[in-house]
Amino acid sequence: MEFYENRSGKPFKASPFVLMYRLPYRLWKAWRLRTKTRKILSQLSAEQLRDIGLDCEDLRRYK
């Protein structure tokens, strides 16, 4: 047997305690990314938004 074949599995990888903290963190991270994106896009002019295929109404709907 090789070294990597004889190692035990990671016992706390899918633990409920780890999952309890992972989901809120991922939700917070996604919310933060949307907030940053919305802030950057709101600073662009109408012409710049049109260049990337958006309009002002798209920004209002983006949450």
UniProtKB/TrEMBL annotation:
<dbReference type="Pfam" id="PF06568">
    <property type="entry name" value="YjiS-like"/>
</dbReference>
<feature type="domain" description="YjiS-like">
    <location>
        <begin position="26"/>
        <end position="60"/>
    </location>
</feature>
<dbReference type="InterPro" id="IPR009506">
    <property type="entry name" value="YjiS-like"/>
</dbReference>
<protein>
    <submittedName>
        <fullName>DUF1127 domain-containing protein</fullName>
    </submittedName>
</protein>
